[in-house]
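Appendix B, Record 12. Input sequence as logged:
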Amino acid sequence: MRRADRLFQIVQLLRGGRRQTARSLADALEVSERTIYRDIVDLQGSGVPVEGEAGFGYVMQDGFDLPPLMFTNSEIAALVAGARLIRAWGGVDMARGAEEALIKIEAVLDDAARARAKSVSVQSYDWYIDEAVRVNLDVIDGAVDTVSRLSFDYADKDGARTRRTIRPLLLNFWGRVWTCVGWCELRDDFRMFRVDRMTALVVGSRYRPQSGQSLRDFYAQVQAQGGPDLTGAR
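Logged structural output:
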């Protein structure tokens, strides 16, 4: 959990005059008590009225609330629509994160902005995405985040199957189809793979990024070719 998210959660747990010990906060947020002590000091230093001390517990003065976030109507529409799209078409963890993001956004908006968020007309439905693809998206996203190799069975458009190991760089959504871009160790080149044709995914060892195999290099290759080669998702 990011530190900013953790501080936000501490404020939420302390709202309403509920006394919380450092141990209970640490258990709720899955961090050490020492981390909670540092976070409390930082909150107090930033003006959040948290009272208490180690061994006694902490409580926040009644009436305190986070200031409302200020968004334009267009910004609210973009945030809500984007979260709804990910909730419908993203991975399992992505969808859960989008749902939690919508709750957090609404919690800190003023009444008028909250009403605007609820009235956003953009909707998206998950009728066309397979649950296996949702799971794969989270696995791929995790491999990209940890700079780890990814091995999988792949079926091309003709049904021919190969076992690939790639250095995953990017997930792209094309509307009903997700693709993964990576440096393919079998072909020794960039390749684009359709996520719905990837099975038996295994996250492997971490790799050291190399010159000529980075996302920047991929973009340079795409630009030189005049655009993405969608037939590469074989």
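Residues 73-89 form the longest helix (17 residues).
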